[in-house]
Amino acid sequence: xxxxxxxxxxxxxxxxxxxxxxxxxxxxxxxxxxxxxxxxxxxxxxxxxxxxxxxxxxxxxxxxxxxxxxxxxxxxxxxxxxxxxxxxxxxxxxxxxxxxxxxxxxxxxxxxxxxxxxxxxx
Length: 122
Hints:
The protein is mainly alpha-helical. The chain folds into two domains: 2-66, Helicase, Ruva Protein, domain 3; 84-122, CATH 4.10.910.10. Helix content is 44%, strand content 5%. A two-stranded antiparallel ribbon has the order 1-2. A hairpin with a 2-residue loop joins strand 1 and strand 2. The longest helix is centred in the middle third of the chain and has 17 residues, at 66-82. The radius of gyration is 22 Å and the shape is elongated. The termini are far apart.
Protein backbone atom coordinates (compact mmCIF):
# COMPACT_ATOMS: atom_id res chain seq x y z
CA UNK A 1 0.00 0.00 0.00
CA UNK A 2 1.24 3.44 -0.93
CA UNK A 3 1.21 6.14 1.74
CA UNK A 4 0.26 9.61 0.60
CA UNK A 5 -0.37 12.44 3.10
CA UNK A 6 -0.25 9.98 5.99
CA UNK A 7 -3.02 7.82 4.52
CA UNK A 8 -2.73 4.34 2.99
CA UNK A 9 -4.30 4.15 -0.44
CA UNK A 10 -5.44 0.77 -1.80
CA UNK A 11 -3.16 -0.86 -4.41
CA UNK A 12 -5.89 -2.70 -6.31
CA UNK A 13 -7.85 0.42 -7.36
CA UNK A 14 -7.21 2.90 -10.15
CA UNK A 15 -5.10 5.81 -8.91
CA UNK A 16 -7.92 8.23 -9.81
CA UNK A 17 -10.20 6.44 -7.30
CA UNK A 18 -7.49 5.56 -4.77
CA UNK A 19 -6.60 9.22 -4.19
CA UNK A 20 -10.20 9.90 -3.12
CA UNK A 21 -9.53 7.85 0.05
CA UNK A 22 -7.67 10.95 1.30
CA UNK A 23 -9.91 13.40 3.18
CA UNK A 24 -10.46 16.50 1.07
CA UNK A 25 -9.71 14.85 -2.27
CA UNK A 26 -12.60 14.09 -4.59
CA UNK A 27 -12.69 12.91 -8.19
CA UNK A 28 -12.16 16.34 -9.72
CA UNK A 29 -9.16 17.23 -7.52
CA UNK A 30 -7.75 13.74 -8.06
CA UNK A 31 -7.92 14.20 -11.83
CA UNK A 32 -6.42 17.70 -11.56
CA UNK A 33 -3.46 16.36 -9.55
CA UNK A 34 -2.87 13.47 -11.96
CA UNK A 35 -3.03 15.83 -14.96
CA UNK A 36 -0.48 18.14 -13.33
CA UNK A 37 2.01 15.29 -12.84
CA UNK A 38 1.21 13.60 -16.20
CA UNK A 39 0.04 10.25 -14.81
CA UNK A 40 -2.63 8.17 -16.56
CA UNK A 41 -5.73 8.02 -14.25
CA UNK A 42 -6.47 4.43 -15.28
CA UNK A 43 -3.20 3.00 -13.91
CA UNK A 44 -3.52 0.94 -10.72
CA UNK A 45 -2.15 2.50 -7.54
CA UNK A 46 0.04 -0.54 -6.92
CA UNK A 47 1.75 -0.09 -10.30
CA UNK A 48 3.07 3.41 -9.56
CA UNK A 49 6.82 3.93 -9.47
CA UNK A 50 8.50 5.66 -6.54
CA UNK A 51 9.09 8.75 -8.71
CA UNK A 52 5.40 8.94 -9.58
CA UNK A 53 4.43 8.59 -5.91
CA UNK A 54 6.86 11.38 -5.00
CA UNK A 55 5.43 13.59 -7.75
CA UNK A 56 1.87 13.00 -6.46
CA UNK A 57 3.00 13.80 -2.88
CA UNK A 58 4.63 17.05 -4.04
CA UNK A 59 1.50 18.08 -5.96
CA UNK A 60 -0.76 17.13 -3.00
CA UNK A 61 1.22 19.37 -0.67
CA UNK A 62 -0.19 22.37 -2.58
CA UNK A 63 -3.72 21.52 -1.38
CA UNK A 64 -5.32 21.46 2.06
CA UNK A 65 -6.04 17.81 2.93
CA UNK A 66 -6.38 15.36 5.86
CA UNK A 67 -5.50 16.76 9.30
CA UNK A 68 -5.09 20.40 8.28
CA UNK A 69 -8.45 20.45 6.50
CA UNK A 70 -10.22 18.68 9.37
CA UNK A 71 -8.72 21.19 11.81
CA UNK A 72 -9.84 24.14 9.69
CA UNK A 73 -13.40 22.79 9.34
CA UNK A 74 -13.65 22.23 13.10
CA UNK A 75 -12.30 25.73 13.78
CA UNK A 76 -14.95 27.20 11.43
CA UNK A 77 -17.69 25.33 13.31
CA UNK A 78 -16.33 26.49 16.69
CA UNK A 79 -16.19 30.07 15.44
CA UNK A 80 -19.83 29.93 14.36
CA UNK A 81 -20.79 28.53 17.76
CA UNK A 82 -18.87 31.27 19.59
CA UNK A 83 -20.45 34.14 17.65
CA UNK A 84 -23.91 32.58 18.11
CA UNK A 85 -24.76 32.55 14.42
CA UNK A 86 -27.84 30.60 13.33
CA UNK A 87 -25.69 27.72 12.09
CA UNK A 88 -23.68 27.80 15.33
CA UNK A 89 -26.80 27.45 17.47
CA UNK A 90 -27.96 24.52 15.31
CA UNK A 91 -24.57 22.85 15.83
CA UNK A 92 -24.86 23.37 19.61
CA UNK A 93 -28.33 21.84 19.74
CA UNK A 94 -27.35 18.92 17.51
CA UNK A 95 -29.95 19.76 14.87
CA UNK A 96 -29.59 19.91 11.08
CA UNK A 97 -27.67 23.01 10.06
CA UNK A 98 -28.69 23.55 6.46
CA UNK A 99 -32.43 24.11 6.56
CA UNK A 100 -33.75 20.54 6.59
CA UNK A 101 -37.06 19.89 8.30
CA UNK A 102 -36.97 18.29 11.74
CA UNK A 103 -40.52 17.44 12.76
CA UNK A 104 -40.42 13.96 11.26
CA UNK A 105 -36.89 13.34 9.97
CA UNK A 106 -33.37 14.35 11.00
CA UNK A 107 -32.63 11.14 12.91
CA UNK A 108 -28.99 11.29 11.82
CA UNK A 109 -28.42 14.57 13.66
CA UNK A 110 -30.97 14.15 16.50
CA UNK A 111 -30.09 10.56 17.37
CA UNK A 112 -32.39 7.72 18.33
CA UNK A 113 -35.99 8.66 19.09
CA UNK A 114 -36.97 9.22 22.70
CA UNK A 115 -39.59 6.89 24.09
CA UNK A 116 -42.72 8.50 25.49
CA UNK A 117 -44.57 6.43 28.10
CA UNK A 118 -48.21 5.45 27.38
CA UNK A 119 -50.94 7.01 29.47
CA UNK A 120 -53.29 4.52 31.09
CA UNK A 121 -56.90 4.85 30.10
CA UNK A 122 -59.22 5.20 33.10
